[in-house]
Every structure is written in C-alpha cells, then in structure tokens.
Amino acid sequence: MLGAVGLVIGSAFAAALAFGATALIVPGTGTHNILPPNAVIGYKENAADRYINVSGQPCTSTDGCNLVGVDYPASFFPLAIIPGWCPGLKCDTWDKSVGTGVTNLGIALNTALGPDPSSTDPIIIFGYSQGGAVVSQEMYNIADEDKDRISVVTIGNINNPLGAWSRLSFLPHIPFLNISFGPQLPTDIGIKSTNYSFEYDPVGDAPQYWGNPLAVLNALVALEYVHGYYLDPTTNSPKDSLPYGYDDGTLATAIKDAPKREHGDATFVLIPQQGALPLYLPVLDIGKQLGISGLVKPLVALLNPVTKLLVNLGYDRITNPGIARTLSILPFNPLTFNPVDFSVKFVAAIAQGIQDAIAGGASLTPAKTPATTLAARSAAPQTVEPVETKKVTQVSLNSSTPGTDVPQASGEKGSTDLDADANAKAAAEKAAADAKAAAEKDAADKAAAEAKAAQEKADADAKAAAAKAAKEKAADEKAAADKLKAAKEAAEKEQDAAAKAAADKAKEAADNAKAAGAAGDSPTKVTGTDTGTTAAPAQDTGAGDTEKQAA
Question: For the residues 401-405, what does the mean pLDDT come to?
Fold first, then answer.
C-alpha cells in the first residue's frame, strides 16, 4: 500500500512540474495496473481523447496534457465471478476500496495543485465506474479556493443521480458486504462536471421502473456487453472495442449530437444505443458461433424496434437527470404514459422491424468511420467541440502563453481527402436519416389511415345498429297497436252481440206478454181436469128468494 501511495505521489508530482493541464485518472473496478512500470496502455489516452477533451477541457493524449493514474484496490468483494473484480475472493469490500481511492485521489490532487496558489493550470479529475464513486466522494472534500481550477469528468458513474447506487439509495449500509449506496455525485458545490453514460448501461443509466421485466433484463445484459468497454481497446483487452459498434469517429459525432442536460454544476450526456439492443447481443453471438447469422439477424431486426419501445417504458427520460430517483416496482410511469401516442409508435415500430428484416438485418450493423478519416484524425490535433462552449483554452506543453482561444474541429481539416470523407459521410448520414424519416412518416400515415378507417367502420356499424334497433322498435310498437286494435274490435263485437241478444230477448218477452194479454179477452174451454181456466157462471137455484122471504 505504501508503495502504491508513493507511486501516486511521484507520478502526480512529476505531472505538476510540467506546464499545462493535468488529468487525474481514477480507473474502474478490475483495473489494477494504472501505474508504471506495467501501466495499461490506451486506458488514460482513450479517457482523454474520447471524453475529457470533448467535455471542453484542454486535454488530449497528444497535446502535452499530463495524464496521471490514481491507483487504489478497485475491487468488489465477493464478486469473484467477474474477472479482476475480486481475484480468489482475497480483495477489499466496496466501501474499503472506495475509501482507499478517496485517500489516494486526495494526495494526488494536493500534489497537482502544488505550492503556488496563483497557478491557473487546469486540473481535470476523471472517474470510471467505481472510480466515479471515488471522484464523487472526493468532490465534497475540495476546498472552495481550489474549485475554479478543477473540473470533473465521469463515465459510467455508479453514483450518478440515475446510476445503480442512486436507484438503491433507500437501502441502508449493508454490514456484511460493507456497501454504502452514496453519496451521489454533487451538482451544487461549485465544481463543473460532465458525466457520460452509454444508454442502458445499468451502472450509470439504470432503469427506474423495475416492474418492467424487459428493461431489467436488457440492463443486466448491458452490464456484460456495455459497461466494461468505454475505454477499449487497451493492452488489457486489445481485441475488445467500444459498445454498440462505435469507433472513435462515430463516438465523437454521437457525443456532439447528443442532448446535454444540465442540473446545477453538472452536465449529463447520454450516448445513444445503436444497432441491436443489449438484450439481443447474446442471441447474435450464438448465431454467429453456430453459423446461422443469416437466419438470426433478420429475426432480431424484426423484433428490435418493438422491443426497444417496450424497454424504454422502464426509463424516465423526461425528469431532469440531475435529480436522483429511487427505483419503482411499477412497469412504467402511469402519469406520463400516453396510450394513443404509444399505439402510433408501436405500429411504426412494427413497420420498421419488417423493413429491417427484409433488408436482412443490416440495421444491426452500425456504420464505421472511414479508415482515411480515422488516420487523419489521429494525425491532426485533437480539438473537438466541447459540451458547453464553442471555444476552449488550448494549453500546450511547449507554449509559454496559455489561454489562447482556438477554433474547434468544425473549422479544422486535415486534408482534401478528409473533407471528401466528411462530406460523403454527412451525405450518407443525411440520406439514411431521410430514409428513416420517410419510413416513419409512411408508417405513421398508414397507422393514421387504418385508425381512421376503423373509426369510420365503427361509426357506420353503430349507425346501422341504431337504425336496426329503431326499425325493430317501430315494428314492435305497430304490432302492439294492431293487437290493441284487434282486442278493442273484438270487445266491441262482443258488446254488440250481447246488446242484440238482450234486445232479442226483450222483444221475445214483449211478444209473449202481448200474446198472453190477447188470450185473456176470450172464454176458456174447460176440458178434463184443467183447473187453470175461468169457471162457467153458476146457475140460479131459487135459494136466494127463500132467504129473502124469511127475512
């Protein structure tokens, strides 16, 4: 440990003696050879050329900027399964490793600041992955009087507000593993920082909605296929390359074109994914190993656009990236989800996938920068347009007058061939962008037409159903009216018949009565035992006279 500290101090002291900017490079987990005599080649150089210089800081591997490695354990107990992270399970825990890194970085920074308080030579602190956690903690220790000279650049920083540790910051310290999930990168202490993350790298760009299984699975695969390749190739991994098929030229263009979102002192740059999603990279590798890429690539190209749309539901790209947010168990943000907009994009993604599959999966192979352009760039001064300003202060090792404003790469050309290559590349990119825009417009127009036709059909069906219902209702009403009329008529007929019958009966009774009256006016002949007729008048017998005489 003392030897490592001594190398840190010696290297930083030597850097401080040189004129110009100094970059203190804090490596990520698993990189244990950042210092001489066996220092990894390409690591510090790529950090300066790809990320520090384009952030607006005057530091490349060829302009005299002092690139100083900061050694520390860079280990993560007990993750021995990942090469270099904890060899033989004999390594420091996370907190112990980071703590040693903070101590060593503080020593290197004090040495780089030097004894002269009037010095204005810029100092850039660079951190990668776990090195980003080291830098984030050290930023809180920097004295106010030194902040004007210091700037910070991080890549894949686990303590980014959107990084893995910030998503898990609700958890307490875990004693057995000795892991603390903070503090996060400060954004309001007066130190400018530029923070790069490749899209879907879960260390620096972790999903927020962990209820989205596709987003979580895609992030886990990206840990293997994306996170460890920001600075490749190096002598530690000479056969590896940048993630997503980028090279130095296309990466510089992507960083230049990417949105720069600011919060306080911090700027956040998300380098877009291109080609196949991380989720499908193992599938493509298996297809290549089995010699069936011709079958696998069109299938992946078919699914890739729709899968990306579903994966993106697990991320919040609206809220400011400088504000830390813990994970959610929801599959997406219900407050920002627009089902109509999503449906249109889903149809467009299906159309795009079909086009890509028909093309044989060519969309999965990103374009490369022409070799002549790369050669010209490597020979020309590395001055790239910075994140926040159009000009940077160029400081050269051989210059005694720092502070000269120089134009950026947009005004510098290495040769006529470089111009031609750049123009051809720009034309190709414009043609590709126009073709993609046309395809997306056609898909959107088709989706809109289909939606309109579906709506018109639904309206027509609804109108027909309403007309049918009205017709059936009218028929039912007519049938009920006819039935009521028939019942009324039947009742009237019954009443007429009853009245007629009553009249007939009354007439019959009247006729019988009349006939009976006529019979009372004529004598009745008594026959037999009939006693119901009028008796014949009695004969005079003379008895009355006898009675009269006696009286």
Answer: 33
